[in-house]
């Protein structure tokens, strides 16, 4: 097996570890329901004998989560609606899966958000609202607070993405322009019990940040949201309706999102059923099985993608020189999510930009492979999950007439890496547990 093949084998093992079906079914095995149509054992009861199960949710992996929930709960589910990214469908009978736009919200997502909100409002005190949340859920369910329009919220998202905002910052702003996020889905359910299962694509698994925390207390404020816009210098570029809402909220003229200690959360349970630890652990184990000494760098990787990529190569050089943290053959493993400050007009994503920067930095360095890929199967607005690069990538680019430095300057990693055959394409993976980064040194 070549070094490149080994890197892909490690990544594939990590993806398998993030399969949502067993994660959902294990989580629901602790949920006691009367046996009608249910495959679950009796435990502490959380649903009244005549109560219904309603399913709502949103996210790239939430369609697969809904299919797993149907297998576990059978005909106790009477209705459901879940928003998913285009192409991320799964076989369901009772739960409607509605495709929506991501990463920029669209009208389909706004309609899906209204459908989710409307269904939650039908929940009765004896019912259980099962909420299935994964990364991407925030963009997939835009529910702008009047008079903010969808188009204005779309423009807000684009401004924040281009400015290099983190997912935490992006969600803090969006939830204060929404009627669904920031605990407001739980509020819509009234007195019904809410049981939320979450796949975390956020470093540290903060409940209020995953998909903008529709069932979690929100610790961010209008002041925080406005401060983020001001920090990035875009406060004057957003729509006046958005700026006015955030300013009014900061003054206390609008009610805040529900905070910790709000009585409504007494009947709400939020459970993280999967996070980046799953894929990182699987990657470490697979690397060891392939004969590499694994070395876990971090599960909280952040930073500008191109800078992280060049840093990985410098680390590989240190290892080859005998001054690194581990001896070759080895596999450095990291989880997290980098960012890209977009200044060009090209096509790509954070993982592809990282791999492109690494390819330039390697420049002939032998026996080193850098892989960066999203566990959700998509990296930016492209069909690739990410990419890998080795010491020969730059030489192959010169033969093909591809100027890697110029492509990097234009944030145009996707076509460059496609020409080199260095893209990783998995299709929708039906999971979403942050990104995985590998550095293999032979």
Mean pLDDT score? 93
Sheet with the most strands: spatial strand order? 3-2-1-4-5-6
Number of domains: 2
3D shape: globular
Please bin the fraction of helical residues. 25-40%
Determine the number of helices (DSSP H or I, runs of at least 4 residues): 16
CATH fold type of the largest domain = Rossmann fold
Q: What is the CATH architecture assignment of the largest domain? A: 3-Layer(aba) Sandwich
Radius of gyration: 22 Å
SSE arrangement, N to C = HHEHEEHEHHHHEHHEHEHEHEEHHHEE
Name of the top-level CATH class of the largest domain? Alpha Beta
C-alpha termini separation? 12 Å
Strand content: 15-25%
Got a strand count?
Answer: 12
CATH superfamily of the largest domain: Glycerate kinase, MOFRL-like N-terminal domain
Uncertain parts:
35-45
> Largest sheet, described in full?
6 strands, parallel
Find the structural class using helix and strand composition: alpha/beta
In short:
The protein has 16 helices and twelve strands. It has 442 residues and is of the alpha/beta class. The strands form two sheets. The protein has a six-stranded parallel β-sheet, with helices on both faces.
Question: How would you portray this structure in words?
Answer:
This protein is of the alpha/beta class and 442 residues long. The protein folds into two domains: 19-275, Glycerate kinase, MOFRL-like N-terminal domain (Rossmann fold, 3-Layer(aba) Sandwich); 277-441, glycerate kinase, domain 1 (3-Layer(aba) Sandwich). The chain contains 16 helices and twelve strands. The chain has a six-stranded parallel sheet, sandwiched between helices. Strands 7-8-12-9-10-11 form a six-stranded mixed sheet, with helices on both faces. α9 (222-231) crosses α10 (240-251). The radius of gyration is 22 Å and the shape is globular. Residues 35-45 have low confidence and may be disordered.
